[in-house]
Please model this.
Amino acid sequence: MTQFCRLYFFYLCVLSLLTGCGQNLQTPKFFLLASKDTQTKPQPVSEQDVNIPEVPAEAAQLTQGPTYISLTPKQEQQIGLKVEVVEFKPFPITIQLTGRVHAADDLLTHISPPVPGRVTTVFVKLGQRVKRGQTLALIKSDTVGQLQSDLLQATLQNNADIKQAQVQLNFSEAAYKREQKLFNDRIDAKTDLETARTQYEKDKANLQALYSKLKSTIIIAEERSSLSGVSVGLAAQVVRTGQIYPYVIVSAPRDGIVISRTINNGDLADPSKELFTLADLSRVWLVGDTYEQDVNKVHVGQSVKLTFDSLPNQGFSGRINYVANLLDPQTRTLSIRADVPNPDLTLKPDMFARLKMLVQNRNLLSVPKSAIQRKGDYNFAYVKVEEHRYEERRVEVGVENGDSTQIIKGLKPGEIVVSQGTLALQGVALKLSNGG
Model:
């Protein structure tokens, strides 16, 4: 009796195991989606508004492995599904850095007085735009006053000498004419006539020399005055009027903007002290620092694109004109500089900028950015494996280029991915995974 019970219990265990295995074999391999309404004409809608078709709970895939979704043509049209081929596309490889706007050094003008003096009037303000030849300041200079005083004294003495020489010339001319008449009347000898002629010619030459000396004195004074910053013609005016004008006019040598002013009325000015700095901002420099790993990618003549946080809707272009030869030991960066046209004077010194430089073009395997979705800690795409059937496949992505995304792993050239309708497919997959 005991042995019979043992055999009976063994058969019952075997029967229960076989029954359980049979139930597990009923699990379906793929999901099958079907539309409830097959009579209504499908209307294309956006992904945001799409109604995800109902899927029976028994269609959900319960085993581990890839997720597959099958759709009818009507369902594909309903969710606006579109596909694109995985292919190689040119990707521009760029480096990005930040920098600041600087006034171009070769368009800066530093203005100092040619002679020492005291500032009597300043005519311009900081930030003011000025034109070439415009008066910036007026300086009273003892040096210029002394120069004009010496000129006036020299010309007065010269004029006195001229008057005396003119009197002497008139006397010798009269004596010469008298001797000539006596000689013609045979009263005086020829030697007396020659003596009178010689004196007359000598006095005439002396007067001419004094006039030349006066002219030379004025010319030399003009040259010395111009070196002192005095206007051309002022020396002649001093000689003509006998009045001293001991002022130096500081004027703009070129068009520009006053970006520095170090004087006020009453200040002492000196040639060693800069009074103004003018900047021509029609072209500016953009100075930035590139990281050590990108040093060999940057070279003179390379084009750059610039954007500014303060000018969100504008873009600017420039070209690198300088690359430093030494790294900054503290930041491990290399200084670069770019020329940037600025005809409208939109860019101002010290504005913050973002630079982008194209350093290389590479063909990379890519898909539309819209084809990539994210779930948890990984990215995936829906790959068309058969007509109306799609696989949810994990992918590893790289850099982006506009509307394209680089594929590092997970896809092959020539495969077809869903580029529009991915959100709807993801919703379907999520509903199935939840047994909905």
